[in-house]
Amino acid sequence: MSVIIELNNVSFSAQQGIVVNDISMMFKRNKTTAIVGPSGGGKSTVLKLAAGLLVPNNGNVYYEGKSISHMNRGENGDFRRNCSFVFQDSALWANMDLFSILELPLKIHFPSMTAKERKSRINAVTEKVGYKKKLTVRPAYLSMGEQKLIAFARALLCEPKLMFLDEWTESLDENAADRLINIVRSKQREGCTFLFISHDMRLIIDLADYVAVIIDGKVSAMAPKEEIISDLLLNDFIKIGIAS
Ligand SMILES: Nc1ncnc2c1ncn2[C@@H]1O[C@H](COP(=O)(O)OP(=O)(O)OP(=O)(O)O)[C@@H](O)[C@H]1O
Ligand SMILES: [Mg+2]
């Protein structure tokens, strides 16, 4: 089974000190890994490092065997087109309307696409995630849950083969969350690889093949879901904040 993303002795420091401390992890293609752990433990930072959105102070991150920080422009373009990221805070551009936000990745990655094709792709993904309101407004007009739906729609636009999802069902009602879970299931069947962060046990049990536990910037465990779940008592899950 081939490895799609590898972190090799990766460290990351911020002003207040070390956030990620010399971690090494491998993520297999076509598999789903849930990253869990207590708040402030470094999960989002690890996900951003794995996606090449943060540059490590030490160590290397590899995508399909190539160091992300040493990719040339063409390789980096391929990597970016094949991956997508749903940020914990959605991270929609505050000064753009929703349609323009969704149009941007298509303009960048598919420059030959016509305006009509972009519109039809945007309509298809917003319908898929269940967003029914106008696309002419800016993100500030949306609830947190609606922003998550648009962030998820943006992540689907370019038909990625690797998706990074940070707390992707947070702020969503059960129906909306189920809709996104079904999209993930269908993309899993198509061979898409997922790395996701969640505190929701139901999601982890339903969707993950592997679970990685990150505590204090270290990988404290990483194993097939069944092993981790049988190794850790429910109490341990509650302590590390992933039971809901
Ligand atoms: N760029 C940065 N600058 C300063 N501090 C940072 C930066 N990135 C992360 N941190 C700090 O690193 C720690 C880990 O943050 P991170 O967001 O990765 O945690 P988390 O496990 O995702 O937490 P949560 O479950 O609350 O989302 C926090 O204390 C945070 O303040
Ligand atoms: Mg986080």
Tell me about this structure.
- With 244 residues, the chain is of the alpha/beta class.
- It has one domain: Rossmann fold, CATH 3.40.50.
- It is 39% helix and 26% strand.
- The protein has nine helices and ten strands.
- The protein has helices spanning 43-50, 73-82, 98-109, 115-129, 144-156, 174-189, 201-207, 225-231, 234-239; strands spanning 3-14, 17-28, 32-36, 58-63, 66-67, 83-86, 162-166, 193-197, 210-215, 218-224.
- Strands 6-7-8-3-9-10 form a six-stranded mixed β-sheet, sandwiched between helices. Strands 2-1-4-5 form a four-stranded antiparallel β-sheet.
- Helix 4 (115-129) packs across helix 5.
- The longest helix has 16 residues, at 174-189.
- The two termini are 33 Å apart.
- The structure holds adenosine-5'-triphosphate (ATP) and magnesium ion.
- Adenosine-5'-triphosphate binds at residues 14-15, 19, 37, 39-45, 88.
Key attributes of the depicted protein:
single chain; 244 residues; alpha/beta; Rossmann fold; four-stranded antiparallel sheet; 9 helices; 10 strands; binds adenosine-5'-triphosphate; binds magnesium ion
Itemize the secondary structure elements and their pairings.
Elements: E1 3-14, E2 17-28, E3 32-36, H1 43-50, E4 58-63, E5 66-67, H2 73-82, E6 83-86, H3 98-109, H4 115-129, H5 144-156, E7 162-166, H6 174-189, E8 193-197, H7 201-207, E9 210-215, E10 218-224, H8 225-231, H9 234-239
Helix pairs in contact: 4-5
Bound molecules: adenosine-5'-triphosphate (ATP) and magnesium ion (MG).
CATH class: Alpha Beta
- Tally of domains: 1
How far the N terminus sits from the C terminus, by CA atoms, comes to 33 Å
Average per-residue pLDDT, rounded, comes to: 93
Largest sheet, spatial ordering of strands: 6-7-8-3-9-10
CATH architecture: 3-Layer(aba) Sandwich
Could you tell me which ligands this complex binds, including any ions or cofactors? adenosine-5'-triphosphate, magnesium ion
How do the SSEs run, as a string of H and E? Answer: EEEHEEHEHHHEHEHEEHH
Query: Any idea what the shape is?
Result: globular
Low-confidence stretches: none
What Rg do the Cα atoms give?
18 Å
Fraction of residues in β-strands: 25-35%
Helix count? 9
CATH homologous superfamily, by name?
P-loop containing nucleotide triphosphate hydrolases
Structural class: alpha/beta
Assign a percent range to the helix content: 25-40%
